[in-house]
Amino acid sequence: MAVNNRYDVIIIGAGPAGMFAANELSGHGLKILVIDKGRDVEKRHCPMESVQHCMHCTPCNIMCGVGGAGTFSDGTLNLRPDIGGDLLEFTHDQKRAWELVDYVDNIFLQCGATKKMISPKEEDVEQLQRRAASVGAKFIDTKQRHIGTDNAPAVIGKFKKKLDESEVDFLLNTDVKDLWIENNVCKGVFLNNGRTIECSYTLLAPGRIGGKWVNEIVDKHSISARYAGVDIGIRVEVPGIIMDPVTKINRDPKFHIQTRKYDDFVRTFCTNEHGFVVREEYEGFIATNGHSMHDTVSENTNFAFLVHIELTKPIENTIKYARSVAKLATTIGGGKPVLQRMGDLRRGRRSTEARLVRNPVVNTLKDVTPGDISMAMPHRIVMDIIEGLETLDRIIPGVACDSTLLYAPEVKFYSMRIQIDANMQSSIRNLFAAGDGAGLSRDIVNASATGVLAARGILEISTR
After folding, report:
1. From its phi and psi, is residue 333 left (phi > 0), alpha (psi between -120 and 50) or beta?
2. Contact (CB, 8 A) for 218 and 89
3. Longest alpha-carbon distance in the chain
4. Which of 26, 243, 318, 419 has the maximal Cβ count within 10 Å?
5. By C-alpha distance, which of 203, 181, 205, 224 is closest to 459?
6. Mean pLDDT, the chain cut into blocks of 10 residues (464 residues total)
7. Using CB atoms within 10 A of its CB, is residue 50 exposed (0-12), middle (13-18) or buried (19+)?
8. Can you list the domains of the chain with their CATH numbers?
9. Distance from C-alpha of 221 to C-alpha of 203, rounded to nearest angstrom
10. What gap in Å lies between CA 277 and CA 406, rounded to an integer?
């Protein structure tokens, strides 16, 4: 496909935010180009599936490409405007926020997402909320739709075909080097191959993998932004039978805990029922995540357990802090995730190959280094994790037993939160922002919704 030198709209990033923005803009007579550093969805294959260790692909097929990182996540759609962000902040109307969630959900359904809605019974929700409240925690009732890691590529492929048929152009395997900004107006993009493409409007939607690049762009062009909080923690793996009573009620249960010692906010995130722990490759460090299939299951269930970190003066750069923690964990693990038994962490000793061989819970991620998480993460975070898991154990018995497996690091950090107006336009005229990479969302549904809002903002301004 020949790519033109000028477009009406250039979208940087082919993840949920970028694809939903392109979908919203199509049909309005606009020439649209989506640029992504990764591959098309059918060409995104991770070698770890066969060789069991990371091949350090550039770019990473798990994190980059059409569909974004969500394509190879659990594929769970959390159908609430206040999970993975807060759409009310952008809509200023609760009804509009919920309508936006439904709008996003319907598009996923059109592209082949399962029609099965995971909606807990009222009495089951009340039971979990009561158990959580009894130990000072909170259970968040969430309607969900589980696409599955194995089915998500097909859904994304159908979505991509829909955009192709709407004459949206895609430029893949291509890095955007910089934005073309003159007199506080964005006029296009500079590519790493030396090419310049002009446009009337640009949307920044590069996903989490583009967070560092967004920060550099923000600093270089003095785009109004602020540091957002980060989430640092671990990936927890337990026998599926431990979590089954809860995941049968809610496939991806959300528990919020405020720790007693430090008064820090800890939460569960991205539960993979009978799933697999996987690794993610970032520039300079590795992290963990989880996958859950429809057709392939393990004996274990895994979930992220994250401590929310906010920094104030004199150090506010949460991204640099989170990266430093992740890099230290990567160093301790010799370039692999650190794996430790809960019992060993409690007793202040490292896990060893011998202890893991004897452990009743068998780790689903094999490319790991047995070690000591307390050597890799700050004391406060480790204490929050131990206390938080012991609180969660009172809600879900067995979660914090000695044989529970803990993988580090699990880091959810976002770029600087770009300041936007009612149309999702930044302080640079004709430059809009959406999704995780712009610090405006933290999950698939919210990222998609911010893409829709940004597209509507562009349409609003372009028709004035």
Report:
1. alpha
2. no
3. 69
4. 243
5. 203
6. 90 97 97 96 77 70 86 82 92 96 97 88 93 96 85 94 96 97 98 96 92 91 90 97 95 95 96 93 90 86 95 80 94 97 97 97 97 96 98 98 97 84 98 94 94 98 89
7. exposed
8. 6-113+147-226+416-463 (3.50.50.60), 229-412 (no CATH)
9. 15
10. 10
Distance from C-alpha of 145 to C-alpha of 78, rounded to nearest angstrom: 7
Q: In degrees, to the nearest 5, what angle opens at C-alpha 120 toward C-alphas 117 and 124?
A: 165
Q: Using an 8 Å Cβ cutoff, are 205 and 438 in contact?
A: yes
Six token digits for residue 381: 């975070």
Cis peptide before 206 (omega within 30 of 0): no
| Alpha-carbon torsion, ordered 21, 422, 93, 318, to 10 deg | 80
Please tell me the distance from the alpha carbon of residue 28 to that of residue 111, in angstroms, as a whole number: 21
**Residue owning tokens 């970190």:** 309
pLDDT at position 306 is 97
Mapped onto helix, strand or coil, the DSSP state of residue 79 is coil
Q: Which two tokens stand for residue 341?
A: 């038994």
Q: State the Cα–Cα distance between residues 231 and 208, nearest whole angstrom.
A: 13
Q: Give the pLDDT of residue 61.
A: 81
In this prediction the pTM is 0.82
65: left (phi over 0), alpha (psi -120 to 50) or beta: left
Contacts of 317 (CB under 8 A, 6+ apart): 227, 311
User: What pLDDT sits at residue 428?
Assistant: 98
Q: Is 389 exposed, middle or buried (0-12, 13-18, 19+ CB in 10 A)?
A: buried
2, 327, 448 from 152: Cα distances, Å: 28, 30, 15
Cα–Cα dist 92/359, whole Å: 51
